[in-house]
Amino acid sequence: MRFGRLHDMMSRLSRAVLAAGFTALLGLGWAVAQTSAIPGGRSYVTPFPPNERYQAVVVGDGLAQGLASGLTEAFKADGAVRVAESTSYSFSIARSGFDWSAEIDRILAAQPAQIAVVMSGVNDARPIRTNEGSFRPGTPEWKEAYGRIVEKIIKKFKSSNVALYWVGLPVMGGSANNEAMEALNDVLREKTYLNGVRFVDTWSGFADQFGGYSAFGPDLTGQNKRLRENDGIYFTAVGNRKLAHYIEVVLRRDLAAARAERNIPLAGDETEQRRVAPRETDLAVNESGEPGSLATEIRDAMPGSGAAASAPRPAYDPAPAPLSPSAGLGGELIAGEIISGVTALASISPANDLSQKASLARVPVADRIYTKVLVKGEYLPPKAGRADDYAWPKASPDAEKK
Q1: Maximum pairwise Cα distance, the chain
Q2: Residue 13 clears pLDDT 70, i.e. is over it
Q3: How far apart, in whole angstroms, are the C-alpha atoms of residue 322 and residue 320?
């Protein structure tokens, strides 16, 4: 009897525990569903900006001021992003006791934005005072204190639902300046990575072939131009445009991902879906066959169509992806001016390598002509009788054929 009563009590207890666990799982599932339903849950930039246009604000010092002008020019043709700025030549992150939360609230109140681009460093190599003391630039204590300030700024922008792009500092004229900028970049790279925001590296894009400072370099068309001012710090107008290109490439990629996230599956038949979300082939006209303002606006906002198609595109990417022979991509883009400002482009890539054609026998990547010449730098023996054949005595091409 006692055993039966004990068994009954245990059964009721088990049912209660299972019910409580099921309820908890339902609550957890609801919470997960609520979280995943938040707009912008997957893309870095919100897919639903107000009025279908993105607003970006550039924050920082004199370098950021030039960057803002370059970004304005970059997005002027298609209008995908409007650029505002909150910059000053005296701007510095390394300000002891400064209330960055209130400052960012002030910036966003004056200019509501979905995107923030921060660039600072010219005035940051200064002592930082904390409750633990005053620390000189470059010391481990200073880097830790500077990193805490950077984290506060990052977290404030993230809590304000603003996509943050932190721009790394470029190579500078003078060894002292270079060392200071490298130390700042180390902190910025670490903190942006740990806090999940974009870090845009610009160092190698403005360095010479030896990794040092150079006032001259290729612009967006591949022509050698003066990119830096005489002070070895700030950029010329051409340099600012090239600087902005690094952010533009990353930002446009994120904007494309945000647009793709908006194309969610819809209920209804194909006609209804086209009415709500016109496809690319149907954007030019609406159902009545007349130009539709909404369709035209969406089409023009898409890359490679409308106003974006007529906008001039950079002929030279100063930050190409690293060459990977095994990937079958990459290569070199060679630009040269012919006459009257006309630029000729030649593309040398693994796609041009005949050994990769499907009709030919499979050749290992390491043995392909492209990899041997342009990756490994090997010298290929010339054909007999060709201009680069220095064999002596000269062999006759006819004899070679026989």
Answers
A1: 114
A2: no
A3: 6
